[in-house]
Design goal:
Blueprint: E1 11-14, H1 30-35, H2 37-43, E2 47-50, E3 54-55, E4 67-71, H3 78-90, E5 94-100, H4 109-116, E6 128-129, E7 149-152, E8 157-160, H5 175-190, E9 195-199, H6 233-244, E10 252-256, H7 262-269, E11 278-280, H8 308-321, E12 329-330, H9 340-343, H10 352-364, E13 369-373, H11 394-405, H12 411-421, H13 458-463, H14 468-480, H15 483-487, E14 489-493, E15 500-507, E16 510-517, E17 523-526, H16 529-532, E18 536-541, E19 551-554, E20 559-564
Parallel strand pairs: 1-2, 1-13, 2-5, 5-9, 9-10, 10-11, 12-13
Antiparallel strand pairs: 3-4, 6-8, 7-8, 14-15, 15-16, 16-20, 17-19, 18-20
Helix pairs in contact: 10-14, 11-12
This protein binds 1-O-alpha-D-glucopyranosyl-D-fructose (TEU) and calcium ion.
1-O-alpha-D-glucopyranosyl-D-fructose binds at residues 60, 63, 100, 143, 163, 199-200, 202-203, 256, 258-259, 282, 335-336.
Length: 565
């Protein structure tokens, strides 16, 4: 399985609300994306994935869709999307749109109908259940905190929502609902989009036995995500979707499959399964959570220091086991993750550039389609708002309410965790230059700009030959022109080493060696003999050039890639 356009693509993820505001209402928009296409093309991007731009009450920034066929007024019109497609295709670039199939907004007409009576034709488009002894049907916890059930007085029943209560889950056991979804997918494909990122697809199938599960000490609900994640019938639904929709088009699909095991991953995207082309899963984003350190919190808000072998193994697991069977995605972050530079890198002034380049080197020489999240190419960092009112994410407000307002934890503790982990870290406006509002908008943006935009912005990156932007541009350029980096196999060395990341990629007669020091100290490393006797040329490095040898001294965050001659 070689030569598909999406295997050779570089995909840039855009969070439209925060990318570029063209009409100065403080909200990014589709025209803003169009303005910046040349910038992206120059970076080496061949496709963009745009997060949801549909009509929405924006409870979850657009992942709560109230009309799949309409573009939100905040972002523009369908004509703008058509223009975007045209402008992209003129530049030989592609558009991947975000498809939200697990839930709708509670303001979607289907749900408005569904709520009315138990015998409404739309009732079973969603998951309704009666309570048990005055309590919700189960004690399961939603991803955004609180119960997955919300009581509705009109019919005296509960509906299921695994995200916010304004996002009722669709019932994928309902044949007509599925047909309506497929009709909508055909409609977008006929608009000319080149692919889908399918949101939260792991959760389409729920265990409808509805049994209570155990609750950890100090918590109110059970975080038993296995009741609604990666269950067998998800695959039946995907296969039907492929048969009824996707098989008619030459498009790319990437499913978001949080919590998928390796076996699950192979089910979603093995070449012979006829499901998706790729999946996004998050093992490597969460190797430093430590649920035991604060059992009163959902694990994503907990942390310990990074043990590098854990990160290497979690990446290697997919590199090795998908090879020849399925296609990988490679990414550090997205709109749901903290900024990788603050997470796995070092965002201090001294090491920001160097560690961002190291992270790019370690990631983008791996096998799979590269994804880069807006701002990563210029070294954007987490934001440290101290006032809860400066945040915008619904998930943060639930956390704050359940912990601080319920006196389970202190304000300081929770704000500190939000600063480290929250999704808003990735959602502050793109930093274009050092003018007012970072050149994102002439008006007050919907969420505050990170004050470090004076030093970290696109304009500076473009002027500075040694910038992160230019380094990433070089990486993408090397990648695009090197079959070994696209199709080669992967081998991890020094697996247990706590500081060094070392791997090779080989294809036919060619081998690349990727060597990096992941931390802020100088490390002496002895390379395995089978690697270092060879003659090598340097392809890219973020420090002074040094020849490949048995004993090497690597400076803080030093990264270097050799090609064996
Ligand atoms: O995120 C989905 C998501 O976070 C979970 O499904 C994830 O699989 C889980 O945490 C497993 O560990 C997507 C979007 O990316 C996010 O922005 C939305 O808020 C969410 O879906 C709801 O649409
Ligand atoms: Ca705007």
């Amino acid at each position: 399985m070689h030569g598909k356009w999406w295997q050779e693509a570089v995909i840039y993820q855009i969070y439209p609300k925060s990318f570029k505001d063209s009409n100065n209402d403080g909200i990014g928009d589709i025209q803003g994306i169009i303005e910046k296409l040349d910038y992206l093309k120059d970076l080496g991007v061949t496709a963009i994935w745009v997060c949801p731009f549909y009509e929405s009450p924006m409870d979850d920034q657009g992942y709560d869709v109230s009309d799949f066929y309409k573009v939100s007024n905040d972002y523009g019109t369908l004509t703008d999307i058509q223009k975007l497609i045209e402008e992209l295709h003129q530049r030989d670039m592609k558009l991947i749109i975000d498809l939200v199939l697990n839930h709708t907004s509670d303001e979607h007409p289907w749900f408005v109908e569904s709520k009315k009576t138990k015998d409404n034709p739309y009732r079973d488009y969603y998951i309704w259940h009666k309570g048990k002894d005055g309590c919700p049907p189960t004690n399961w916890e939603s991803f955004f905190g609180g119960s997955v059930w919300k009581y509705d007085e009109i019919t005296d029943e509960y509906y299921m929502h695994i995200f916010s209560e304004k996002m009722p889950d669709l019932n994928w056991n309902h044949a007509q609902m599925r047909k309506d979804i497929y009709r909508m997918m055909h409609w977008w494909l006929n608009q000319g989009v080149d692919g889908f990122r399918i949101d939260a697809v792991a959760h389409l199938d729920k265990n409808c036995n509805f049994v209570n599960r155990s609750i950890p000490e100090g918590r109110l609900y059970s975080p038993c995500y296995d009741e609604f994640s990666n269950r067998p019938k998800v695959h039946k639904h995907i296969q039907e979707m492929v048969k009824d929709v996707l098989s008619f088009y030459d498009v790319m699909t990437v499913g978001e499959a949080g919590g998928a095991s390796l076996d699950d991953a192979l089910k979603y995207c093995a070449y012979d399964r006829n499901e998706f082309n790729m999946i996004i899963s998050f093992d490597h984003c969460w190797v430093d959570v430590d649920p035991c350190s604060a059992s009163y919190l959902p694990s994503k808000w907990t942390y310990k220091s990074l043990h590098l072998p854990d990160l290497k193994k979690s990446l290697a697991k997919y590199q090795i086991n998908l090879y020849g069977k399925a296609w990988n995605t490679i990414f550090w972050s997205n709109h749901d993750q903290p900024r990788v530079l603050s997470h796995y890198g070092n965002d201090s002034t001294a090491y920001r550039k160097k560690s961002a380049k190291m992270l790019g080197t370690v990631l983008y020489f791996l096998g799979g389609t590269p994804f880069i999240y807006q701002g990563e190419e210029i070294g954007m960092t987490n934001v440290s708002f101290t006032n809860i009112d400066d945040y915008r994410d619904i998930e943060i407000f639930t956390l704050y309410k359940e912990t601080v307002l319920n006196h389970i934890s202190t304000k300081e503790d929770i704000i500190d965790r939000i600063q480290k982990r929250s999704r808003d870290n990735a959602r502050t406006p793109m930093q274009w230059d050092d003018s007012k509002n970072a050149g994102f908008s002439q008006s007050e943006p919907w969420i505050k700009v990170n004050p470090n935009y004076i030093d970290i912005n696109v304009e500076d990156n473009l002027l500075d030959k040694g910038s992160i932007y230019h380094y990433y541009q070089k990486i993408f350029n090397i990648r695009q022109n090197t079959k070994t980096l696209i199709y080669g196999d992967f081998k991890l060395y020094l697996e247990e080493d706590e500081n060094i990341f070392l791997y090779t990629r080989s294809y036919q007669e060619e081998t690349y060696i990727v060597l990096a020091n992941f931390f802020e100290k100088t490390i002496d490393v002895v390379l395995p003999e089978e690697i270092c006797w060879k003659k090598a040329e340097i392809m890219i490095c973020n420090d002074i050039e040094k020849p490949l040898s048995r004993n090497m001294k690597l400076h803080p965050y030093e990264a270097i890639v050799y090609r064996i001659l």
